[in-house]
Amino acid sequence: MAIRIPKIDAARCSGCGRCIAACHLRLFAFETHEWKKTSVLHDSERCSGCGKCAANCAIDAITMDQNPVSANPPPAEPACPAAVRFIPV
Hints:
Distance between the termini: 48 Å
Largest sheet: 2 strands, antiparallel
Strand content: 25-35%
Helix content: 10-25%
Radius of gyration: 16 Å
């Protein structure tokens, strides 16, 4: 089984941020290399493959590629880590 994940062409990316705004899972962020700001995908395992980022890219710097899905996906992060939970005494 494979899902489509976004692949960003950093040479084409203008750093406009449309993909960041389009991602409902908030998986994109800006990175700066020397003087150029580009968008990068973080935590691609969580990507749903909806394609909204590619559809909103005005300069076609994002393409949707196939990504094999592992049989054992990583466990979801808890909403509140145990280290910060309030435990009454």
